[in-house]
Design a protein that fits this description.
Blueprint lengths: L2 H7 L3 H11 L1 H4 L13 E2 H8 L3 H13 L3 E6 L2 E6 L1 H14 L1
Antiparallel strand pairs: 1-3, 2-3
Helix pairs in contact: 4-5
Length: about 100
């Protein structure tokens, strides 16, 4: 884990909001084409609509979160779905607990 990369990813309010929404996607999004959001994830178009930003900006935010290891992708057909990487988030929480 690169803590600097993780903290950079978490330094943006919209990226933090995305992570919060992905924690309980069924509370924040309508399922995309009947996909199980807990198992598969949330489509970029769903996040784009919720943030009211351009798809390119949201895609960039998701890419930053993915590079930091905070989210995972799942490609189904022409769609890419995003979900939290709970193992990595726990690792970060443990790191903070031990360090601070």
């Amino acid at each position: 884990m690169d803590p600097i990369e993780v903290f950079k990813a978490l330094s943006n309010e919209s990226r933090l909001q995305i992570l919060q929404w992905l924690k309980e996607p069924e509370k924040h999004f309508v399922p995309h084409e009947g996909v199980d959001m807990r198992e598969v994830g949330v489509c970029v178009s769903q996040v784009t609509e919720k943030l009211n930003m351009t798809q390119s900006t949201v895609s960039q935010y998701l890419s930053i979160l993915q590079r930091a290891g905070l989210i995972r992708t799942n490609r189904i057909g022409k769609y890419t779905y995003y979900k939290r990487n709970e193992e990595k988030i726990k690792e970060i929480a443990d790191y903070l607990h031990q360090t601070l």
